[in-house]
Design goal:
Blueprint: H1 2-27, E1 30-36, H2 44-57, E2 61-67, H3 69-73, H4 78-85, H5 93-99, E3 105-108, H6 113-120, H7 127-137, E4 141-145, H8 154-158, H9 166-180, E5 185-187, H10 190-197, E6 208-209, H11 211-219, E7 224-227, E8 232-233, H12 235-243, E9 247-252, E10 255-257
Parallel strand pairs: 1-2, 1-3, 3-4, 4-5, 6-8, 7-9
Antiparallel strand pairs: 9-10
Helix pairs in contact: 1-12, 2-4, 2-10, 6-9, 11-12
């Protein structure tokens, strides 16, 4: 009886801590600094991605756009760009440097070849490159939409710029892959973009396995549950698994570990 009471208390405490943490995550939007570079093939693809992010996770992400000097030099209409991006928070490079410590994600929505080259050559004379190198060296999350530097992406064919030699394309692709080796996450499509930036508070399904969940599995006639790495199994849930003779198979570092409840017919082989 004492063991069950202790298990119940532990489960209650875990639940309280879990949902308190989730509430704090939901209350604190993550800051995304989108460093916008000029691209010879236009910037529509990257701006469209920002707009979709804003529409999907606007409550959870605080997106700020910082245009590179070349964007300003080409006298582009920033108001029109802001409309395409669906983001009205635009800041200067100087302000971005001042705020860098508070940024959660550094994102390049439009990745030109010159930016790939500057990063690979550690060209920290340029403010945005210096910011990105700082972020990578600081362990910040840094990502980029790879379409602008991937010669095999459909946007190049649509623009009639897919006629380069195989060697040229190979070299461009190789440098892009080298950049990925720096720890910069290369995002290939809209689905990957949404997955990468999906807030933790929206990924909380089945984060905690409870005794009630075990009971429902037992009532449904199930005798085996496999859970992913990082999922919390409460002490009371483990007690319930023993009571209902349900095998909980946990993933740890790529291997599966069970709780030993294998005496029933379905797991006798």
């Amino acid at each position: 009886m004492l063991v069950n009471r202790q298990s119940a208390l532990a489960e209650s405490t875990l639940h309280e801590l879990f949902y308190r943490n989730m509430s704090s995550i939901e209350a604190r939007p993550k800051t995304v600094l989108a460093l916008l570079f000029y691209h010879m093939n236009g910037m529509d693809e990257g701006l469209k991605g920002l707009k979709e992010l804003k529409e999907s996770y606007g409550r959870h992400l605080r997106i700020q756009v910082c245009p590179d000097q070349r964007v300003l030099d080409h006298h582009l209409n920033l108001s029109a760009l802001a409309c395409k991006a669906g983001v009205d928070a635009w800041i200067s490079l100087e302000e971005a440097e001042r705020r860098k410590e508070k940024v959660d994600y550094f994102y390049i929505p439009v990745l030109p070849f010159s930016t790939v080259s500057d990063l690979l050559n550690f060209n920290d004379k340029q403010t945005p490159i210096r910011l990105l190198l700082w972020a990578l060296m600081s362990g910040k999350k840094v990502s980029a939409n790879s379409a602008g530097a991937d010669p095999y992406h459909f946007i190049w064919k649509e623009a009639g710029l897919n006629q380069g030699s195989p060697f040229l394309k190979h070299e461009m692709k190789k440098r892009l892959q080298q950049l990925g080796g720096f720890g910069l996450q290369l995002i290939k499509n809209a689905e990957q973009l949404q997955t990468y930036f999906k807030p933790a508070s929206l990924k909380k399904d089945k984060q905690v396995i409870t005794a009630e969940m075990i009971k429902r599995h037992a009532e449904a006639g199930e005798r085996f549950i496999q859970v992913g790495q990082g999922i919390i199994i409460t002490p009371l849930a483990r007690d319930a698994a023993q009571e209902y003779r349900i095998e909980i198979c946990e993933e740890r570092a790529g291997e599966l570990y069970g709780n030993g409840n294998r005496s029933w017919e379905s797991h006798s082989n």
